[in-house]
Write a structure and sequence with these properties.
Layout lengths: L1 E6 L4 H8 L8 H10 L6 E9 L3 E5 L2 E7 L2 H8 L10 H14 L3 E5 L7 H4 L7 E4 L4 H6 L7 H4 L2 H5 L6 H21 L2 E4 L2 H10 L4 E4 L6 H4 L13 E4 L9 H11 L7 E4 L10 H12 L6 E3 L5 H10 L2 E4 L8 H9 L3 E4 L15 E3 L4 H13 L1 H18 L2 H25 L1
Parallel strand pairs: 1-2, 1-5, 2-4, 5-6, 6-7, 7-8, 9-10, 9-12, 10-11, 12-13, 13-14
Antiparallel strand pairs: 3-4
């Protein structure tokens, strides 16, 4: 079986080939899945991505890679604050269709609806069977783009005119501009692949006739192999968070919770393992730094930037709990990595999180935006080692079963086989 992927970012082997260093960022579930599928002699794999400064085509470790150059027009639009910067150009979509024709796969697997690769089917540029993995979804994300903040609190003219980083307004516009594209992609897909009841519901709401299959994500081996967390080895009252620099991710809520916790635990510390929180990176980043100063949290908050899996495991083992304060999430893989380590967690119960964390069993939950209740839930973990161990142990058991590599690979292959068998059946009937 020949399988062609379209991904929103470069796979590590492709990044090493092009720039000589491994990629940083997210998307590791795809990296792990690709590593598992490469082991199968019955699969031929190719990966296409819009990421480079020029078009390139090469092979690494048995996988064929197609890298398409970014659109100069879209880059300029991004600098000008246009929401259209997130849309693919017509030329890029045509190049993607040409890759499909050239490589002639049995199955096309589009990872995510954000970049527009699935338009090759929506625009009837290919008749190959296409599976689309749901990651984020633009319509529900756009409604939570500012979290519970007012635009005036996080947007400043500076970020839109000086190139110091994308404004929150631009992010909201980008979500809104991509809604029609995303919905046409889901309506034209042969199968949608997802991991939560939330994305299942949204696929149905957008395209009632599109088939849907549950496929869990693979987690990085460092977390699957990690020794279980223990309260005896952690740094008391240290919180770990990996939330990104957007209001929707809710770091401002967690900062308020930290401020409240200091009344009873003055030594509380927050480590944020995420890039993009420079003092002038964006309107929201400046908002965060202003809150840190206003609440006197300069010595309580540490921004770690991007860290690799080995360092993340170390941070999880040293943390007292993990927190996801987002206003919208589909699955939050970082939380699921914390669950694999057995680190007790607190999360908002929004979107797909209802399928990830079970309140009072595998973690504690709170309503999005409720800083007081978040502080209280964290305090419960800080002050009750038995509760912390119970939550962490149950989370680890559930996560290890859910993200078992053999189980996830079987789910993916079943979807691929369903697509190819359907194609064969149709050709025989015709």
């Amino acid at each position: 079986m020949r399988v062609l992927w379209f991904t929103n970012g470069l796979m590590p082997d492709a990044c090493r080939y092009l720039v000589g260093s491994p990629r940083i960022g997210s998307g590791w579930w795809m990296t792990e899945l690709l590593a598992q599928l490469k082991k199968r002699p019955d699969l031929q794999l190719a990966v296409a991505t819009i990421e480079g400064f020029e078009d390139s085509h090469f092979e690494q470790d048995g996988v064929e890679y197609f890298v398409l150059k970014r659109s100069l027009l879209r880059a300029i639009q991004g600098r000008l604050g246009s929401g259209k910067a997130g849309l693919p150009s017509k030329a890029q979509v045509l190049k993607c269709a040409a890759i499909v024709k050239q490589w002639n796969p049995d199955v096309v697997h589009v990872h995510g609806t954000e970049a527009g690769y699935g338009l090759i089917k929506a625009w009837k540029l290919t008749d190959k069977p296409i599976a689309v993995s749901v990651q984020g979804l633009m319509r529900p994300c756009s409604s939570k783009a500012y979290g519970d903040l007012l635009p005036k609190d996080v947007d400043r003219l500076l970020s839109r005119l000086t190139g110091l980083g994308p404004s929150c307004l631009q992010s909201w516009r980008s979500f809104r501009e991509r809604i029609p594209m995303e919905e046409s992609i889901l309506r034209s897909a042969d199968i949608a692949l997802g991991r939560t009841e939330w994305d299942r519901a949204w696929v149905w709401a957008i395209s009632p006739h599109t088939s849907y299959r549950f496929v869990d994500d693979l987690m990085r081996s460092e977390f699957l192999d990690a020794a279980p967390w223990s309260p005896s080895s952690c740094r008391p009252h240290r919180i770990l968070c990996t939330t990104g620099p957007q209001p929707m991710k809710g770091l401002h809520v967690l900062l308020e919770a930290i401020w409240r916790l200091r009344q009873v635990h003055p030594d509380v510390q927050l480590h944020v393992a995420s890039a993009g929180f420079g003092p002038v990176s964006s309107g929201y980043s400046r908002c965060i730094w202003r809150l840190i100063r206003d609440w006197g949290l300069e010595k309580a908050v540490t921004f770690l930037g991007w860290i690799d899996a080995g360092r993340m495991v170390e941070e999880m083992r040293l943390a007292h709990c993990y927190v996801t304060p987002s206003f919208n999430e589909n699955g939050c893989n970082a939380l699921q990595e914390a669950m694999l380590v057995g680190l007790p967690s607190v999360s908002t119960l929004v979107g797909g999180m209802l399928s990830v964390i079970e309140s009072e069993r595998t973690g504690l939950t709170f309503p999005a935006g409720d800083a007081a209740l978040l502080a209280w839930k964290i305090r419960r973990i800080f002050e009750d080692d038995t509760l912390a161990m119970t939550l962490g142990t149950q989370a680890r058991l559930v996560a290890r079963d859910k993200h078992d590599p053999e189980r996830v690979v079987a789910q993916v292959l079943q979807a691929y086989e369903e697509l190819t068998n359907a194609t064969v059946t149709e050709s025989l009937v015709s």
